[in-house]
Write a structure and sequence with these properties.
The protein has a single domain, classed as 3-Layer(aba) Sandwich (Rossmann fold), CATH 3.40.50. α1 packs across α11. It is globular. It starts with a strand and ends in a 7-residue tail after the last helix. The chain has 257 residues and is of the alpha/beta class. It has an 8-stranded mixed β-sheet with strand order 3-4-2-5-1-6-7-8, sandwiched between helices.
Amino acid sequence: MVEAFAVASGKGGTGKTTSTLALGMALAERHDVTVVDADTGMANLLFHAGLADVDVTLHDLLVEEADAAVEDAVYERFGMRVVPCGTDLAGFEAANPDRLRAVVAELATDTDVLLLDSPAALGSKSAVLPVVLADRIVAVLEPTIPALSDGLKVQEYARSYGTGTAGVLFNKVREAGTVDRIAEKTERYFDGPVLASVPDSDAVREARAAGKPLLAHAPDSAAAAAYRTAADRIEVRHGGGEEVADRFRSAVVPDAP
């Protein structure tokens, strides 16, 4: 039983990786969770999860005639299974994004929730593929009108491939009333609800510096509580693992929009 979520935003710097790991840890209290750093060009999840020194990453699985098994790139961390991606340019250049379908398909057979930490923009095949493969997106946005516009572009693209929207997660919220001022537009234009508002927090920055997910580093922080609220509002729709895996394997790999 599995549902795949692409954590996306439409621009960089919104806190997608922090949010992916935080949602993963919160969802792992009720589900088996696998987190994949699908940002093959600008990966940094490994630094957030204390995996900077691992030998095998997603890059090793995406090269032609790869000799690494998928399980070699899976690491048990913080109650989740985590698949980090490498950060070197050579690994990115050698990676074939088409192979992500088979990797995600294999992972889908042994988990309840797949969280794909997606690239910031939709400018390449490797960037759009996680959104296309996912059942639903979680849009991580700062509470501004331009950010809503970016998120709506991602949702529109996702819709065109049959990918739904689980909800909007507002991040780096500095003033309590900020989200209220754009809530009506959010509810009007997005297919999913506002999952939570995560306050801008020193705890988030300290967790990143410590190489730990927020919920491991500062579980009692206000930001951690907001992520738990968001996870509680995501109703996971379980599908058959093998059926979902077959869908991943046969997915049409799109060109960049």
